[in-house]
Amino acid sequence: MKTEFDNALCTMGAQIQKLFSVMPEEDKRSACEIRLRTGIPPSITDSSGRTISYGNERLTPYQVEEAFMHLCGHSVYSHTQELRNGFITVKGGHRAGFGARAVYDGDRLTGIREISSINLRIAREVIGCSTQLTDRVFCGGLCGLLVVGVPSSGKTTQLRDIARYLSESGRRVTVCDERGEIAAMCGCVSPFRLGRCCDVLTGFAKAEAMLRAVRCLNPQAIICDEIGSGEEVSALCEAVNAGACVIASVHASHEEELMKRPQCVKLLKTGAFKRVAFLPKKYLYDEEIKVKDAGDLIENHRSVTDRYMRSADRLGA
Hints:
- The protein is α/β, with parallel strands linked by helices.
- It has helices at residues 4-9, 14-19, 25-30, 61-71, 80-84, 131-137, 155-168, 206-216, 230-241, 255-259, 262-269, 294-316, and strands at 31-37, 43-46, 51-53, 87-89, 95-105, 108-121, 145-149, 173-177, 198-202, 221-224, 245-251, 275-278, 290-293.
- The radius of gyration is 21 Å and the shape is globular.
């Protein structure tokens, strides 16, 4: 039976698959990333953050370039916009990031070339992984939720399972999947279990997707990944005013880091989020997630800011 690792690996072509042919099944189950670097043997990053190399064969520039072409489906042009951002999302929701040389036209980044490394992040579906959150956050009814964590802490996996939970319970859900990672639609079908009441908007900018969802799909819940720009905050407010609850994620390692970011504070002050969940750095689904009331975070931030201003005034005096 193929694992998520096998499905991700096959997007890089037969040459690369062969390099991992002696990989133990246990390593496949724990792999979070597949890494290719020119002049270095292929490796994975596992769930504990360790790097494990396989074999002594050093990857050639040709092998890395071939893997890149396979990831792009041999049509680099069709991925131009994604590549400007440094990554593409491939079939199955796996996300490939690249070490490369930038190509500019004046001040405008037009693409990348000379691919020197590839990091393929493996997407996983873990049915029921959000139970701890759904039981605690939605016990009193549907409400806005902000999921906070560092890269690879499981934010997208949590959002995907929350979408499934809400949809299977009969709530109308719209997934705003700008990068194709949450639903990973392929041929109008998602490989993941999203339930019977879920609509997906793929490829739209998040702000546009939220507005389109409100105007056309009448969702009770809107789910999106990595929110935070000014346009997204405005669209978020419009969605909430239209009666939809928003469930989204942001990057931060802990409460203090979150509240030091003006855009995150602005997000919380919209009132769109009733609860904020902080994922552990390497969430293993049996660890307790810290859940806080958004109002308490804002009040604590206000108190800290007021104390700082009073201290600054005294020092200035």
